[in-house]
Amino acid sequence: MSIIIKESIKNDLINLGIKEGDVLYLTIDTLNVGFFNKNRSTTLNTWLEIFFEILGEKGSIILSAYTETFWSFNKKKDLIFTRCSKTSNGAFSNFLIKNKKAVRSRHPTNSVIGIGGDIENILINHHEHSKAYSVFKELISRKAKFLMIGTLDNKNTPQAMHYCQELLGHNDHFFGKGFIQTYYYDINNVLKLFTLKDSGGCSRGGYKLYGPLILNKAIEFGYVGNAFSAIMDGEYSKNVILKELKNNKNLIQCDNKYCISCYGSFYKNGFKVIPFYIRKIIEQIKKILNKKYGMSNRSY
Ligand SMILES: [Zn+2]
């Protein structure tokens, strides 16, 4: 087994097809790569160096930086989206948020964080009045590549998936529409309440798109360090996914049969939601009884 060092990661990325001037939309799980340089902070800084030694001044990297929300019937006054809000999208996104040179888009729940090249202009139209994934239109117009480092699993999706749902109008019917909120400061620094009107929902079934992406030669695989990784042309992968979801909007339902996002929406499932909610209620009652009386769920 070869030792994973800065130069070997750089070579792995070049072998995957990363070039000078590229705009990269990235998902990354650095722990899967097996690269460590002194401490956590130095390791993440080295990652940034690696990217920009390849991309140069004109290249950019962008990652999701989605943030916490509350239900409209349970408002949290102190939950305000700002440039520095922590994200649930992983260590590298949070590391970039702390970098003063990075730019964050102003969408209050589905912001992205990016650095390098023309990043200000890439992100300028992604804000409280735009759709949640509209930034992908700009990325695709700039011939962005979608890179997944160590994130080929059943949690992360090929990057274009939620944008394709947006283009098809599916996101306008998500479960929870009108009830998911956060506070934010608008461009004039006035505190406002944001209500989410569109969302891609659950991502756990996104892995089902790898088949069509492979058959259409829209994805290439390789290793970055120890991490199984993939790269896609932004526009072409979008076209392949769009065609699949146009034919079957339920292709990307996840494997959890109790998932409300995938199985609880009338728009996606029609009258199948009736048996779904009966199952869901029975499951909830079982859970409560189990907690109270220690009853086992096991069937004999
Ligand atoms: Zn689901």
UniProtKB/TrEMBL annotation:
Q: Which reaction does it catalyse?
A: a 2-deoxystreptamine antibiotic + acetyl-CoA = an N(3)-acetyl-2-deoxystreptamine antibiotic + CoA + H(+)
Q: Which InterPro entries match?
A: Amioglycoside_AcTrfase, Antibiotic_NAT-like
Query: What UniProt keywords are attached to this protein's entry?
Result: Acyltransferase, Antibiotic resistance, Transferase
Keyword check for Acyltransferase, yes or no: yes
Instruction: Report the enzyme's class at the first EC level.
Output: transferase
Which Gene Ontology terms describe the biological processes this protein takes part in? response to antibiotic
Which Gene Ontology molecular-function terms are recorded? aminoglycoside 3-N-acetyltransferase activity
EC numbers on record? 2.3.1.-
**What family, per the record?**
Belongs to the antibiotic N-acetyltransferase family.
The entry's protein name is Aminoglycoside N(3)-acetyltransferase
Q: What is the lineage of its organism?
A: Bacteria, Pseudomonadati, Bacteroidota, Flavobacteriia, Flavobacteriales
